[in-house]
Amino acid sequence: MPRMTIKPNTQVDYLGILDEAGEIDEDRMPELDDEQLTGFYRAMLRARRFDERLLNLQRQGKLGTFAPVKGQEAAQIGSVAALRDSDWVVPSYRETAALLWRGTPMQGLFTLLAGYNEGGQIADTQNDLPQSIPVGTQPLHAMGIAHGIRYRADDAVVVSYFGDGATSQGDFHEAMNFASVFRSPVVFLCQNNQWAISVPRDRQTRSATLAQKALAYDMPGIQVDGNDVFAVYAATCEAVERARDGGGPTLIECVTYRLEVHTTADDPTRYRDEEEVEKWEKREPLLRLRRYLESLDLLDEEKIEALENDIKQEIEEAWKAASADMEQLTDPGVMFDHLFAQEPPRLTEQREALQKWDAAKQRRRDDEETQ
Amino acid sequence: MPRMTIKPNTQVDYLGILDEAGEIDEDRMPELDDEQLTGFYRAMLRARRFDERLLNLQRQGKLGTFAPVKGQEAAQIGSVAALRDSDWVVPSYRETAALLWRGTPMQGLFTLLAGYNEGGQIADTQNDLPQSIPVGTQPLHAMGIAHGIRYRADDAVVVSYFGDGATSQGDFHEAMNFASVFRSPVVFLCQNNQWAISVPRDRQTRSATLAQKALAYDMPGIQVDGNDVFAVYAATCEAVERARDGGGPTLIECVTYRLEVHTTADDPTRYRDEEEVEKWEKREPLLRLRRYLESLDLLDEEKIEALENDIKQEIEEAWKAASADMEQLTDPGVMFDHLFAQEPPRLTEQREALQKWDAAKQRRRDDEETQ
Amino acid sequence: MAELTMIEALNKALHEAMEADDRVLVLGEDVGVDGGIFRLTQGLIESFGEERVIDTPLAESAIAGMAIGLAIYGLRPVAEMQFSGFSYLAFNQLEAHAARMRWRSQGRFSAPMVVRMPYGAGVRALEHHSESREAYYAHTPGLKLVVPSGPRNARALLASAIEDPDPVIFFEPKALYRSFREEVPDDPESLALGKARVVREGSDITLIAYGAMLPRTIEAADSLASDGVEAEVIDLMTISPIDDATLEESVRKCGRAIIVHEAPGSFGPAGEIIARLVETSFYHLEAPLRRVTGFDIHVPYFAREQAYLPDADRIVAVARETLDARA
Amino acid sequence: MAELTMIEALNKALHEAMEADDRVLVLGEDVGVDGGIFRLTQGLIESFGEERVIDTPLAESAIAGMAIGLAIYGLRPVAEMQFSGFSYLAFNQLEAHAARMRWRSQGRFSAPMVVRMPYGAGVRALEHHSESREAYYAHTPGLKLVVPSGPRNARALLASAIEDPDPVIFFEPKALYRSFREEVPDDPESLALGKARVVREGSDITLIAYGAMLPRTIEAADSLASDGVEAEVIDLMTISPIDDATLEESVRKCGRAIIVHEAPGSFGPAGEIIARLVETSFYHLEAPLRRVTGFDIHVPYFAREQAYLPDADRIVAVARETLDARA
Ligand SMILES: Cc1ncc(C[n+]2csc(CCOP(=O)(O)OP(=O)(O)O)c2C)c(N)n1
Ligand SMILES: Cc1ncc(C[n+]2csc(CCOP(=O)(O)OP(=O)(O)O)c2C)c(N)n1
Ligand SMILES: [Mg+2]
Ligand SMILES: [Mg+2]
Fold it and tell me: Which of A103, B228, D84, D141 is the most buried (most CB within 10 A)?
């Protein structure tokens, strides 16, 4: 009975298709028609510009804290584009690009980030969970939804989005394990953007890749160039197809980079060098796609300008609508809404007490004014 | 940029030394002198007999629920024997064999299992945490202690014991990750006894081995024949040495079997076949060690009888002492002890209220008797 | 009508719910093949198959999180925590997600799920197997908390909990699992959540209890009755939301009240009830409201657990002090 | 003597504790290189190195569990939960282990650790960043719970918490982190845990508060004073164990009292305080004890968080009702 090496399923692949120069690996290139190709670019640009506008409004004090998506557009658009409308998206808090693609209205996002619960409304047609903040805890919901899908023999799949930091959370492990045991149709999509606030990837975990965490569950795991929208798309299509065919879950690690602050409350100069950011600026996802599309003559200066104008207009109209809308959102009683399907008496009493206090306050103010 | 296979550190070894026939692999055999060899057998037999006595007392209603160790003696003795007295043991609830080896008095164990907190006392010389029940949550303490050791540049190591079921718990993952990031001197010792109550190993997780869960952290992981005390000892020595030398943590999966009920509240006939148990009876750890030691003339009928008598006497004396002792443990106020270093006033009031109620009850009883 | 234990009654409720509605799934550790470590889910896997009765790996947070996902998808999961003492591993899922899904999604999604868990002391169990920390859940907005006290109401309340459109934490008094039998109607029965019931009428003092403390409280009431004191006994059944009206009415009538629970007293449910009664019925009070509860300690190992638990003696003693108090 | 914000004062306390005792380690997410997301731990890693100021991976349960291990080993870990709203992930470690280690090991081991966490609303933050669920911890036997209300007592209480031989949950009112400055003595200062303080003397009504509600309560007292009502204001500082004596004395003197906190009212700390005052001081009460608290809901997103929070107006309104109540 000698000492011997046993071989669990230990392969972890890396996939890249579109390089920084805008050149592609023809063999690996997924089939995409011209409309899809320009659609990818449009979606990524739209997310980038929206993000910039959010940042700018936040700096003006019009919005609260949020987590910019800049740099991760390919990871999000490449993956979400692999889904059908009837599939499910389980986001964390940085999935602006993916949610915009899915149809989340800019107006709602503005309203949400301005601090109104009403902004969190989700269209009945959108199978997307609300954005959610506790890091690493949402993959369990994705797994649960996926299990429901399997139970109903529905053919949807679920994509769960999270970051590199999230892989340290116990819930992540539990979600991976349950999904693997139950062969749930779920894709675990990790956006390894190299940082969890100030903690760099290599202090988050000692493994060479995050993709290899799939090995603990004999689950397929793949690392992709997360700034390469084609690689992300191809890997997600493969995983989604496997899930839809009953082949169970996949872990995809998208190697990308957070080019902006963690959130608007963060100061990255405290923990990372400008050089690192510059290095990654060169690898950023929009530029290389633009180069590729230009080489195909699908994009040029003029077309880009048209795109930019379109997007700008859409953003400004949404902000205007949101601003107008928010002026109507004055009833504080809204905070009691949607806690339960049927409001228990004590909550109604509290709602009324609040009204009473507010009315009294208003009366006092009016009195003071008339004095 | 082709698709390529990247190779993280993906080796998982299997180690076996002593086979069921009592024959060893000379090349792998650790150095052990005669005293150590018979010491292993004595410790395993002692644990087996103590366990049997516990079961018998439990069935008589004299002890409460407990988790028998039968079948796992080699996994526990082989690993704990690799430690120095100054090293730390972090047990779960089934580590009777390991704790007996470490010096935990049988009397205390009897008292504990009879439902008295006092039985949980731990000698100042024993660096063993109290037994603890929430599955999979204790490896974090082992990691924390190990971090303290590193901070103090102490040369101790920590062994954390847990089962196959525990590997599903988020805390297990977090402990593995932290230990790997911080290179903590800790050995994660998984006793894969094939069952977590009624859930078989292959429904607990889909990976081919539990050892490969180390791959998620680029941590050394090894699977050993957990019913082979030499293999467990050799693997633990290797891991302990690595930890002591600053090489960080190791995951050891001991493949073993729970030959008894999960706990005395459990009925395994509901979920497993007698055949499976019989199959594993043949692989059980004591018999093969006995055969080997007989082949070396270190054991024979006579010696075994002497051992058995010794152990029997020790157990009966401990039970007698515990029984006598428990008759004195009548003060319910003990339940307030050790909650805080300094008792807050309200607890003292509650302690006194209890005394008052008990005194009143006693008075009423006395009154009733005199009537 | 059959005479059932609470275990059997809850098992019946689960069978009925699964029979009636294929959205109902049961999940947890050992709930399937083993039939649950208390045999509470016995027979379910045979009747409904392993697609609907799911033996999960050992991870409480995942059980809760999976249930949340299933509920969002439109199913009606009934998740089991093997003991309430292990539910803290799932606490974040319950607080951060189950309790917030409807609210966070502005009504688009919700988490209609039941999380069953045996709680309480008195069965000679190990550490962590005897906790009563219902206050954690009662204090969490967005959750309901139900505690039955006998086979019949257990079955009816579980039926309602499963039908409820919001997440319900269902605390089962394990000390009563097999302690007595009760007639349980053959036909399905449900009991509205949020309603307490007057178990025994009286006008001298109100005794408020729930779960495993109810029989002891009734015992105390009987003992008081033999001395001519008529205690009204109220069984809360739902801890959150509390049925204020029933409590108020009784306390206004009696002027004196005691709240009994086995959870540690400090920051426990009794404090909430006292605060509400003070707010609503202060001028009807003839004596200080008092509580008889567990001590502010961990439940001791089983040799002393009965000394930890409130018993009829203590309830009577405190009732007497309350009755003797000057008005 | 320097004028410090609470952030600076807590930072000072950490520097002092680490300077004085090499058993003190600080651990948590972003506490090192980043200096904490509120800059509360700024400068520590520069002064004491990364062996003592540990940036951990992102896992709250592990942070708590690691601290427990460190404490058992003989060190004095000060762990940070980035927000109290994420501490539920660590809840099992705190309930099942930190709170029980001394008791379980019959005194052989203990878990002298501090778990710091910012709590409370009012800083225009995201979901889960505004919770006040101190009741979860206060209800847990074996834990202490401390809530400072200003820079000076924050520093002194943190010093005591770190020295305490048992686990202390340290809730930091983040709304007060930078809202005002206060003179903080240069020399080390500590404040005994378990003691409340009378912030303002009065004899008409007692206002009991803590943390971020204290300034609002004082504002209410000032407003009442301008109408000739002398309110006594008590700052609890330690929520568990409560300083019963100080509360009792004040309430017996005033006969009327209000408890203010931003946590949801139901099953919140105010209920406990009311229950205790009813138990001890019923015959001194001239009006129903009342509470002014957060509503039984999740803290709304920031556009409405001020409407959620109790303010001086509400406190005054309820105080007036209490004062007008017939004795
Ligand atoms: C459970 C939990 N702990 C802490 C936080 C605070 N926090 C917000 S984001 C973040 C880092 C997350 O890193 P990562 O998972 O890599 O995602 P990224 O922000 O980089 O997209 C932390 C610590 C949180 N939101 N949830
Ligand atoms: C957190 C937690 N959940 C559930 C339980 C109930 N329980 C006790 S042992 C056990 C199975 C443990 O299996 P494993 O880890 O393989 O250890 P074994 O008992 O086989 O030694 C379960 C579910 C528990 N003690 N703790
Ligand atoms: Mg990240
Ligand atoms: Mg096992």
Answer: B228
